[in-house]
């Protein structure tokens, strides 16, 4: 590995290259004066050592073709990791940027604060403001100021998020947040809490044994804070304990949007597996359906679920309630052009996160070429979701690589869960 230096408005950044791909690891992009305080733009630094990955830092990583030069105007993909707003960093190996670099596309991974430091809300916070999401906004602003020096085109940025990262990407697309830092969005399996932080604040207060104030949480030892949070999250094991809410797709900016889901999403959640091991799985699912946000006919949803997999009713209910309902709602409500994809498998269920490596080219399949097409601003090669009212989606088989057009694959979800928007 050889050192590489790039001079940009943020300072002189030292990365490493193997002669093929160049990595700039863990670049600081913000100044965080306190865990529960808003981050600020980091002033320029003289020299930034970006030769090693530092997983504990709130930072970003840039991956470029080795030959990339300033003002080369290469497309840029910015990736926001998932992790239930509880874990994950800017070094998600499942979305590593080397295959993109081989195709002449720059990849930026943005890390952000998670758990209460990033997602708790206090009485003086602005509406719809979350520190972890604001961290990502600062990261996008860093990209706008600096990516030209790495060879990227700041006017051709595609924002990609998976799970909680997709939730963040959609939240940053709201008209009250959107600042033009990206031209299009790919949202993979987004997930929104079914209730607001305000509704759950009392539960958090009991779990922590402290007032939910900036001052009180700042004084708590880290271990005590983690123990309290872990007690809190157990109340929402089949939901997002934290996160922005509610989703209202009508509030999104009018930009191209590609939304995706895996067909089985959360079959592997222990609660679902336990329920599905019982002969009473359908009765258990019926008892949970309303609690998990179902507003339509359970019997209609159940009939569709049986056709897909009669042995995994509980697991399907969890995935539909946590992810696929938000994919459906986003596609139905977004004001701009929308494309939808659904990932399936021949051999076993297509689980949450199984699509990440193939989308980023680390595993074989057509998805990476589709991502590159989207990132270059070219037309995706299947009809828009709502063209002629057909609700067309591209079904992608993660095992065979086969793609097929399907009409309205999330009909059962749309009819069962409807919209959470007021």
UniProtKB/TrEMBL annotation:
Gene3D superfamilies per record: alpha/beta hydrolase
Domain named Carboxylesterase type B: residues: 60-190
Membrane found in the keyword field: no
A family per Pfam: COesterase
Entry annotated with the keyword Nuclease: no
Swiss-Prot/TrEMBL keywords: Hydrolase
EC numbers: 3.1.1.-
Origin superkingdom: Bacteria
Family designation: Belongs to the type-B carboxylesterase/lipase family.
Protein name, UniProt field: Carboxylic ester hydrolase
